[in-house]
From TrEMBL, chains A, B:
Residue ranges occupied by any Aminoacyl-transfer RNA synthetases class-II family profile domain in the UniProt entry: 32-399
Pfam families, alphabetized: HGTP_anticodon, tRNA-synt_His, WHEP-TRS
Protein name: histidine--tRNA ligase
Family as reported in the entry's similarity comment: Belongs to the class-II aminoacyl-tRNA synthetase family.
Enzyme Commission numbers on file: 6.1.1.21
GO cellular component, one term: mitochondrion
NCBIfam families in the cross-refs: hisS
Gene3D superfamilies: Anticodon-binding domain, Bira Bifunctional Protein, Domain 2, S15/NS1, RNA-binding
InterPro entries: aa-tRNA-synth_II (IPR006195), aa-tRNA-synth_II/BPL/LPL (IPR045864), Anticodon-bd (IPR004154), Anticodon-bd_dom_sf (IPR036621), His-tRNA-ligase (IPR015807), HisRS-like_core (IPR041715), HisRS/HisZ (IPR004516), HisRS_anticodon (IPR033656)
The UniProt record lists the keyword Protein biosynthesis: yes
Catalytic activity annotation: tRNA(His) + L-histidine + ATP = L-histidyl-tRNA(His) + AMP + diphosphate + H(+)
SUPFAM superfamilies, alphabetized: Class II aaRS ABD-related, Class II aaRS and biotin synthetases, S15/NS1 RNA-binding domain
Length: 515, 515
């Protein structure tokens, strides 16, 4: 491998030498000598690996975003960021890689999906797996005890991606978190309000936000007779309820995990329950559930949460759902997940989506998720000092796919530039005049383009406007120059009108602010 | 290492078991048994590595951006992106890592600075080193022959960073490139116009844009008597002219690289030349320089470039400077570099900055650089099909530092949020009323905040406004609720006025649009 690279390098240099000798008109003998050297090198490479063919692709599980995809992405980001800013969030950024040990012990089984960097001497590094652990590290490192921040960035998971279903190894996460010791459930309620605002504004169709609490789950397991050391494994089975029917979930609990039939049935009764504040009230009276202090604490908080959600005017979409589990270890209190009722224009995906909301398996149609994690920051603090946190992760990769599909289905024309005016000419030899005019427009802050050919055809200039959605063309010709005017053409209507150079800027501003 | 991690994992789980048993009020015997197991595990770890102390830091050469830094960054990005959009650019994105072989043979000696990912099975991957090579790969892969695009993203170099001087291993690049077969020098001139616009708008003080051409350099070396195979090494010595005096550069050429004294002196004459179109004209008449076809082609293009720069109104800052070399291999024509005349508020840095413009060593004060690279895309095309490209990279890391220093020096107050109104109360038990009001504001699209405590002190609510620059406070009290009004307080003047609930939104909009 090393040898091959060196030979390739040598071939490149030798090729350059030959090229330069030719362009500098060196003697034929000299050139021939250098060409011979080049051929020899190439033969060497051929002998080493004759079939070597350069592979032109992106790394497995990754993709480029083309301008159209970027335009959609920008629109989605703007909506989401506006919402975060409306709620007074700051933003931070952290490096794409962390010390390996920073990530160690945070993701349970999924740790095997972490990308490690090669040991090239120095620290052992890994690519971030989510934005939550770097956030907790940031808080502990800077001794920050309260902050409301968002962070939009790419994370990395060595998963086996099904890219046709929108799952990638490199994907965006879009997190909003509130850290700080506050009176109960107000920040939690604000996170749900934010999910409600974003999903409504993005116009993704109807949605539902499921809410539960880690303490209610644990309490439910305890009072149903699940042994303490099985809480986690049973929880992860419950987590599958959105992908498989109760019978299969029960079978896994009993047959694979060895839970008693009675315990499973008791769990089955609870996890079928959905409701609002009333359900929390009812469960507080439930003779079994009320035996668990943890469950009672969780249920009281759910009641309080719903009272705030009413004030925030979002109860229409929120449902208290005892089957919501969310696999992630670090949650300690309320958890939630938003699902689309109509799973996209093209509902082919009957698969768990990973390049998606939060940090583990998310059900079909899930577009946001999060919860309270009061212990994570303490894992980084040398004295274990805790900073309570609650947050939400918007599943923007899924939202991107949805928007892309929608744009395609509706054959929407998506502009990839914001150009307002194309400076064109109908006659030859007016390049300099075009450049002069486009400079005037740029000076006035108008978004303008000019073709880079000396003598482009008018038709091709107009065609470019059609293709890229430029609304106006400023056409120059000998006559217009003599008259001190510009022919302003509206691309959509083909209407043309002469505008004096003195008022052109004003006229363009007037017309483009209308649009 | 592996064993240690497993033990740490086991300790975590065991700790959790103990915690839960306690919270579930298990029997003392049971708890004691589990605590004993926990202590045993801890002892095991201690024996393995007693001194192990978790290191709370970011990876070497990287940093977090705090909200204040992010606010500055956002401002700079907005200015730059607006300019790119004004010139009709689209944007693309590529993955943070590429196949290792995509980067192979593109960076010469600097290839050793590339971060590789660990071989975890599958493809060999590396973190991107710049945005230009991924761009060329993208064009070849998608058979794109013309595009005008910008790309802002982080790149990675395993350099020995001097972070105090603003050099990092992870840093932003901010590239604008025009690909396509066009009539000469128009896209090249637009790149310079863009540099001019951005540096002017960012208000970084006076600047200069140096321009040269790779062909003029090569021709100059040829007519000065530099042997063909020494072009590159002599070029890289010339590149040091902005950091050391001519005498030292000459000494390196003659003593270290073995160039003849006469050739060095001839080069010395040329590289001291600076001017505009007139200098290009004069050199076309120069009896030595005119012997090189390459040099003549470069000089004619410089003349043409300056004629377009005049139309673009940027010649005030552009200078044709024969000492500008730029080390990167892939340049084939015009090259340029922008330098600040006053190198920042705090001119401590007398060092080459790497987290900076383009792709190699950049001189003191350099804030942008680029050039024409007509051969790079062809290196990726299976048939070697070339796509001519010209581009510029804005050195935003350096610009960030500059802005940060400026903000600090002028003690500027930088807002990290955009909140317009704080909803506060002077009395207790008004949490619900505050939440109701803030919901009304959010519904109207107003950026508003509320404190998460049930009964915060008015003083601390006002203090928060002072600290974070919130201009207005909407104060609720029993009396205001009775009267159907809100007391609107202007934080700056402390002026307070009662506004009816019905007109509050309108009033806030009026006041904040004024600001």
């Amino acid at each position: 491998m090393e040898g091959k690279t060196q030979i390739q390098e040598a071939i490149k240099i030798q090729g350059e030498v030959v090229r330069r000798m030719k362009s500098e008109k060196a003697s034929k003998e000299q050139i021939d000598k250098e060409v011979a050297k080049l051929l020899e090198l190439k033969a060497q490479l051929g002998g080493d690996d004759g079939k070597h063919q350069f592979v032109l692709k992106t790394a497995k599980g990754t993709r480029d975003y083309n301008p159209k995809q970027m335009a959609i992405r920008e629109k989605v980001f703007n909506t989401i960021i506006s919402c975060f800013k409306r709620h007074g969030a700051e933003t931070i950024d952290t490096p794409v890689f962390e010390l390996k040990e920073t990530l160690t012990g945070k993701y349970g089984e999924d740790s095997k999906l972490i990308y490690d960097l090669k040991d090239q001497g120095g620290e052992l590094l890994s690519l971030r797996y989510d934005l939550t652990v770097p956030f907790a590290r940031y808080l502990a490192m800077n001794k920050i005890t309260n902050i409301k921040r968002y962070h939009i960035a790419k994370v990395y998971r060595r998963d086996n991606p099904a890219m046709t279903r929108g799952r990638y190894r490199e994907f965006y996460q879009c997190d909003f978190d509130i850290a700080g010791q506050y009176d109960g459930m107000v920040p939690d309620a604000e996170c749900l309000r934010i999910v409600h605002e974003i999903l409504s504004e993005l116009d993704l169709g109807d949605f539902r936000i499921k809410v539960n609490d880690r303490r209610i789950l644990d309490g439910m397991f305890a009072v149903s007779g699940v042994p303490d050391d099985m809480f986690r494994t049973i929880c992860s089975t419950v987590d599958k309820l959105d992908k498989m029917p109760w019978e299969d979930v029960k079978r896994e609990m009993v047959n694979e995990k060895g839970l008693s039939e009675e315990a499973a049935d008791q769990i089955g009764k609870y996890v079928s329950m959905q409701g609002g504040m009333d359900l929390a009230e009812r469960l507080l009276q439930d003779h079994k559930m009320s035996q668990s202090k943890q469950a009672c604490a969780g249920l009281s908080d759910i009641k309080l949460l719903f009272s705030y959600l009413q004030l925030f005017q979002v109860t229409d979409k929120v449902v208290f759902d005892l089957s919501l589990a969310r696999g992630l270890d670090y949650y300690t209190g309320v958890i939630y997940e938003a699902v689309l009722s109509q799973p996209g224009v093209q509902s082919s995906s009957n698969e768990v989506q990973n390049g998606s909301p939060a940090d583990e398996c998310i059900s079909v149609g899930s577009v946001a998720g999060g919860g309270r994690y009061d212990g994570l920051v303490g894992m980084f603090d040398p004295n274990g000092k805790k900073v309570p946190c609650v947050g939400v992760s918007i599943g923007i990769e899924r939202i991107f796919s949805f928007m892309e599909q929608k744009a395609e289905a509706l054959a929407l024309k998506i502009r990839t530039t914001e150009v307002q005016v194309m400076v064109a000419s109908a006659q030859k030899n007016l390049m300099e005049e075009r450049l002069k005019l486009v400079t005037e427009l740029w000076n006035a802050g108008i978004k303008a383009e000019v073709m880079y050919k000396r003598n482009p055809k008018l038709l091709s200039q107009l065609q470019h406007c059609e293709d890229s959605g430029i609304p106006l063309v400023a056409i120059l010709g000998e006559q217009e120059l003599k008259d001190g005017v510009v022919k302003l053409r509206v691309v959509a209507t083909r209407e043309e009108v002469d505008i004096s150079r003195a008022t052109l800027i004003e006229e363009i501003r007037r017309r483009t602010s209308e649009a």
